[in-house]
Structure formats: C-alpha cells, structure tokens
Specification:
about 475 residues, Beta Polymerase, domain 2, 3 domains, 6-stranded parallel β-sheet, 4-stranded antiparallel β-sheet, 17 helices, about 10% strand, 4pyrrol_synth_GluRdtase_N
C-alpha cells in the first residue's frame, strides 16, 4: 500500500489556477465519492484552503494512482492535464508523510508556524472519515499528522511569536499594559488592517470598541462586527479622552492626530496613560506626541522590527520542529512497512515450519525408537537450520520494506516460495488481520504497531 499526494499551493500556481482547483465543503463530499470510485484509489482526503489544494490517497499502484488524480482534477477544473502536472507537486511514501507532517506543523504555510492549518487539516480528515472515504492507512496517517502538529507547537513554541503587523501591535499592547481585559480601543480608519488589529485585540480581552472614520457608513459597518460604537470624525479628540488604546490606519497624506489638540486630550485624562499604534504610511499620528507624559506610541517601523525579531525566533523553532517530524516520520514508516511485509514474513515462517515438522516426523519414523532427549536435540538442530536460512532474507525484506520498491520485494518472495499470504491483496481485503500484525509486532520491534493494534481493540470494545 502506497501513500501519495498531489497538490497545488501559493508557491506553485497563480491564484487563477488555485481558484479552479479549489473545493468548497459541499464539492468535497461529491469529489470524495468520485475519487474513491477510481480503480487505483483505496482511500483519500482532500485538503482545500485559500492557499492550497491537496489530495492525499492510498494506492497499490504509484503511477496509476497519480494519473487518476491528475485526470480527476483536469476533468473537474477544465485545466488541461499537462498544465495540471506543471502547476502541481506530487510525492509518494516518505515524501508524502513528511510533507503532511510539515503542513500540519505550519512549516509549509505562507506564514511560518501559523496555527489555522492544523484545524483545517483536522476538518478535512473528519469530513473524509465521516464520508467513509478513508482506510486504515489514511486514518493512521492523518491521526499522526495532527499529533505531530500539536507536538511541534507545544514543544517548540513556533506559534508564540507574532509575525503579522496587526498581531505584533497586540503583543506590544500586552507588554505595555499587561492584561487587556476590560480595556477600550478607539479605531481611526475602517480599513482591513484596522479590522484585523481590532479582531486580535478583542480576542485578547478588549471589550469596548469605538470606530471613527471619514466615511461614517464604513465606521458603522466595522463597529457592528465587534458590537461597538461608530462616531463622527469630528468627535475624534473627544473619544480619545476615554480610550485606553488608539489604533490609527487611514489613507490620509497628513497627520490626522496633531500635537496641540492631543496635548489638550492628555490634560483631560488626568495622568491616565494611553497606548497608541500608528499603522499608517504616511503616519497618522504626529511623532512628537510620543514625548508627552503618559503616552506610548509605536509606528509601523516599530511593529516591523518586532515582526522581524519574532520571525527569526520562528525560524529557530522550525529547526527543532524538523527534528520532531523526522522522528515521527521514521516511526510511521516502520508501521506502514508492516502492512505488507509482516504477512509475507509470517507466511514464509509458517511454510518453513510446516516443512520442518513434516520432515522431522518422517525422520523420526525411519529412526525408530528414540529417547525424548534425542528428539529434542534433532528438533533443535532443525529449528536452528531453518532460522539461520531465513534470517538473511527476512532481514533484507524488512530493510527494503521502507523503500518505494518494498512491496515488490514482498510480492517476489511470495511468488518464489508460492506463499499463501493471509490478507494478500484481493477485491475485498487488502489488509492483514490484527492477529497477524500482533503476532509479528515483537518480531518487527515496532511499538507504534502495537499501540495501533491496542487502539483498534479498544475501539471495537467501545463500539460493541
């Protein structure tokens, strides 16, 4: 069983191509049904966000699986299959698992370490699982990807450093004022940057939002999003006397907040401190206001310095994240290799054991009466010979199991020895039984496999 992915993201294709290859939630349900009906696909998940579309699938045939997905995307989008190949990336086995682990950890995102993608992957997986579009390999892959994403964030702190201008403003406010719970904010300007900054402030405890904009209608629209109040631009200084935080981001070509008028604002505040963030370019706030007692003023360059510093921290955290990913990648691939190698090893050992027992019985019959001691010695000798003969091919098969050609070696061994492999690929069953996997788990020395078996048993008990 092979795992593959075909995807497109902000680095490989322009937005007009990404739009045509994207899926709405409703479209994903129908697409999953069509994908699973394709001959080479045994299970799949579709991840579709604003910056990426990816189809993860389990397949027995690498080239057939990739081609089926390319053809599916081409038929659905109307984009020629040759263009689909040019704009998409594709991976198999190790590279697919590593890619998904990196995506879930935020290492493949436009903003390094962003957290939203983890929830998007979870939602995509749950949708596919509920649709019945996944299989055991896909389930285990995505469950581990979600666990890796959580582990990376908890152990490296890669998402704890603000790397957007709007969020950096909030971090500076928290550093300056401590808790933001119950604080009030006056927003000057009703553009996208103002909206993002207020959104982060409200998420961190700010409760009172007042919006002032030259277009009163736009002020009303933004204020409504946060259950706030819109005020006329002429009342700007009046409401400054009551705000704890001022965010300014307008398109004005001159100072919107001037020194002399603001000096009177501070006189009315009676030594109450104020925190001001000027995100506009050109600046909205007269920089001389920063010299007034009780004023903390940051402009966009100050915010950019914070972003640059935090991005450097995230890059350091990403190095540690890559190490976690590689460890978990090896663990998963050991588990995956057992899906086709263990049944072959068990079948080979069962066949040689049957031959040994048959030939021993013939030998004992010819030798006549033997003591139990003599039988034990002969039996031990025969077992040692069989074990030594099997040791090298079994060891080599385990080593080849984690390569893209691993399944071929398993099939060759099955054919050479005419093995009757339980769980061998058939129309209705491509998986070895849990009993077989459990019996081989200690032989493979794979804790991950044993944990998976125990989880399945527990699930079966709970469902029963």
């Amino acid at each position: 069983m092979l795992i593959i992915v075909v995807g497109v993201n902000h680095r490989t294709a322009p937005v007009e191509i990404r739009e045509r290859l994207s899926f709405s939630e409703g479209a994903i349900k129908e697409a999953l049904i069509k994908l699973n009906a394709l001959p080479a696909i045994s299970g799949c998940v579709i991840v579709s966000t604003c910056n990426r579309t990816e189809i993860y699938a389990a397949t027995m045939e690498l080239n057939d699986g990739l081609y089926d997905i390319w053809r599916f995307l081409s038929n659905r989008s109307g984009v020629d299959i040759s263009e689909i190949k040019n704009y998409t990336y594709s991976h198999s086995l190790y590279d697919t698992v590593r890619h998904l682990f990196r995506v879930s950890s935020g290492l493949d995102s436009m903003i390094l370490g962003e957290t939203q993608i983890l929830g998007q992957i979870k939602d995509a997986y749950e949708l596919s699982r509920k649709q019945g579009s996944t299989n055991r390999v896909i389930n285990t892959l995505f469950q581990q990807a979600l666990a890796v994403g959580k582990k990376v964030r908890s152990e490296t702190g890669i998402d704890r450093h603000a790397v957007s201008i709007s969020y950096a403003a909030v971090e500076l406010a928290k550093q300056s004022m401590g808790s933001l719970n119950g604080k009030s904010v006056l927003v000057i300007g009703a553009g996208k940057m103002s909206e993002l900054t207020v959104k982060h402030l409200v998420a961190n405890g700010v409760s009172g939002v007042v919006v002032s904009n030259r277009s009163y209608e736009r002020a009303i629209s933004l204020a409504r999003q946060f259950n706030g109040q819109a005020v006329n631009f002429t009342e700007l200084y009046k409401y400054m006397t009551m705000a704890d935080i001022v965010i300014s981001c307008t398109a004005a070509s001159h100072y919107v907040v001037k020194l002399n008028q603001f000096r009177s604002v501070m006189e009315k505040r009676i030594e109450q401190k104020i925190f001001i963030i000027d995100i506009a370019v050109p600046r909205d706030i007269d920089p001389n206001i920063a010299n007034l007692p009780g004023v903390t003023l940051y402009d966009v360059d100050d915010l950019q310095n914070v972003v640059d510093s935090n991005l450097a921290e995230r890059k350091l955290a990403a190095v540690a994240a890559e190490e976690i990913i590689e460890d978990k990648l090896d663990e998963f691939m050991k588990w995956l290799s057992t899906q086709f190698v263990v049944p072959t090893i068990i079948a080979l050992k069962n066949k040689t054991e049957a031959i040994k027992e048959s030939e021993l019985q013939k030998a004992f019959n010819r030798l006549g009466k033997l003591s139990e001691h003599d039988k034990k010695i002969i039996n031990t000798l025969a077992g040692a010979i069989v074990s030594q003969i099997l040791h090298e091919p079994v060891t080599q098969l385990k080593a080849y199991a984690v390569t893209p050609q691993g399944h071929l070696y398993a099939e060759i061994l099955q054919n050479l020895f005419s093995l009757n492999v339980e769980g061998k690929r058939s129309e209705n069953n491509i998986w070895p039984s849990n009993q077989m996997l459990a019996a081989a788990a200690s032989d493979i020395n794979c804790d991950f496999l044993r944990e998976d078996i125990n989880n399945e048993r527990n699930c079966s008990r709970n469902q029963g």
